[in-house]
């Protein structure tokens, strides 16, 4: 149990500290409802938000940023196998999307109003999509998508993690179709307090869309919520591990009491014959040390198999290595030594006369 608790804790810390590939801080999604179904109103909204000083960048986005999108197997690319039915997510975005969410363009460029073709025949792929298609030089490559004109790859975006904790980025195709967007991704001004920026955004949206109060998706909170079940699992494993250690200590203490009682006369005779405290403690503890080592040898393979199966559900996972097993062995030995030694010390310090006076 100690081994599994250590591995679960380490995996949770790994997921928690792993870079997401985008900047979740000061990033919110504003639902586009009412008047904001009109693209002209959305453009006005973006301008007014920029003027307010609360927003440094914004871009339209289809659906919720932290939820799954639609997928399709109808994409084609040079060299595609006719039997390849790979699924690709597809997301519609506005201009400057990568800049707004804090993602990195690793090749080519982001969508821009300076390029008229971006509104109809340009796409951006993430690294996972490029890898899945097997493209060596993706920028400039023409791909197909059923029902659409030929599409030219203008950029490659670094993979980012906005789905399940520990999961890899799915192959994704970003395209520009503002008729399908549902959110406006907003990068709030980091130089202003968050509540001040949000209040300014609310004032602007209230003025332009009075019938619909502003609804926000705070991306950092949404990402933290995705980790909640993992946190609960980590907490439960720690509590259960602690409970198991407590029960083990009680068992060891009871066994130590029994064995000390059985060997009390032997220990008294050894003391009379000149045995010192150290040798008596070693005598009483060595059998327990052997038992703990044997228990670790039995438990380690079982823990390795169980923890390995649990880790399989994560695309990004730790390498177990040997340290959890060594640390668990050290912890169990220390607990056993401390628990047994407390009773052994009491027996070893006892007056031999008390045990031998009736012999």
**Helix fraction bin:** 40-55%
* Gyration radius from CA atoms, angstroms: 32 Å
How many beta-strand elements? 12
Q: How many domains comprise the coordinates?
A: 2
Terminal-residue CA separation:
46 Å
What structural category characterises the helix and strand content? alpha+beta
Shape: elongated
* Whole-number mean pLDDT: 85
Strand content: 15-25%
Order of helices and strands: HEHEEEEHEEHEEEEHEHHHHHH
Task: List segments where confidence is low: pLDDT < 50 over at least 5 consecutive residues.
Answer: none
Largest sheet entry: 8 strands, mixed
What does this structure look like?
The structure is a single chain. The chain has 359 residues and is an alpha+beta fold. The protein folds into 2 domains: 21-226, no CATH class; 228-356, no CATH class. The chain contains 11 helices and 12 strands. The protein has helices at 2-17, 39-52, 97-101, 127-133, 194-208, 219-226, 228-262, 264-272, 277-311, 323-348, 352-356, and strands at residues 27-31, 55-61, 70-72, 75-76, 88-92, 105-108, 122-126, 142-145, 151-157, 172-175, 183-188, 216-218. The strands form 2 sheets. Strands 3, 4, 5, 6, 7, 8, 9 and 10 form an 8-stranded mixed sheet that branches. The longest helix is centred in the C-terminal third of the chain and has 35 residues, at 228-262. It is elongated and about 100 Å long. The two termini are 46 Å apart. The mean pLDDT is 85. InterPro entries: ABC3_permease_C, MacB_PCD, Macrolide_Exporter_MacB. It holds the Pfam family FtsX. Its main location: membrane. GO terms for molecular function: transmembrane transporter activity. Residues 239-352 form the ABC3 transporter permease C-terminal domain.
């Amino acid at each position: 149990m100690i081994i599994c608790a250590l591995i679960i804790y380490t995996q949770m810390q790994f997921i928690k500290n792993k870079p997401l590939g985008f900047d979740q801080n000061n990033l919110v999604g504003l639902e586009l409802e009412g008047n904001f179904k009109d693209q002209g109103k959305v453009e006005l909204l973006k301008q007014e938000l920029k003027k307010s000083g609360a927003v440094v960048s914004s871009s339209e986005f289809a659906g919720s940023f932290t939820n799954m999108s639609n997928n399709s197997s109808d994409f084609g690319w040079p060299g595609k196998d006719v039997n390849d039915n790979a699924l690709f997510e597809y997301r519609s975005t506005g201009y400057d999307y990568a800049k707004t969410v804090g993602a990195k363009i690793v090749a080519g460029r982001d969508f821009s109003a300076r390029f008229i073709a971006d509104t109809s025949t340009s796409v951006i792929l993430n690294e996972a999509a490029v890898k899945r298609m097997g493209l060596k030089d993706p920028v400039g490559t023409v791909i197909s998508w059923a029902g659409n004109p030929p599409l030219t790859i203008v950029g490659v975006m670094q993979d980012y993690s906005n789905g399940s904790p520990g999961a890899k980025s799915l192959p994704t195709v970003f395209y520009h179709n503002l008729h399908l967007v549902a959110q406006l991704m907003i990068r709030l001004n980091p130089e202003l307090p968050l509540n001040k920026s949000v209040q300014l955004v609310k004032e602007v949206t209230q003025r332009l869309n009075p019938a619909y109060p502003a609804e926000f998706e705070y991306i950092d909170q949404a990402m933290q919520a995705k980790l909640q079940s993992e946190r609960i699992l980590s907490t439960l494993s720690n509590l259960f591990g602690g409970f198991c250690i407590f029960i083990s200590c009680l068992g060891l203490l009871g066994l130590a009491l029994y064995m000390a009682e059985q060997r009390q006369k032997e220990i008294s005779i050894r003391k009379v014959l000149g045995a010192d405290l150290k040798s008596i403690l070693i005598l009483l503890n060595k059998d327990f040390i052997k038992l703990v080592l044997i228990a670790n040898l039995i438990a380690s393979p079982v823990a390795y198999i169980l923890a390995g199966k649990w880790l399989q559900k994560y695309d990004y996972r730790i390498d177990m290595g040997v340290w959890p097993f060594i640390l668990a062995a050290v912890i169990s030995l220390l607990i056993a030594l401390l628990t047994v030694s407390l009773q052994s010390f009491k027996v070893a310090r006892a007056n031999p006369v008390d045990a031998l006076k009736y012999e």
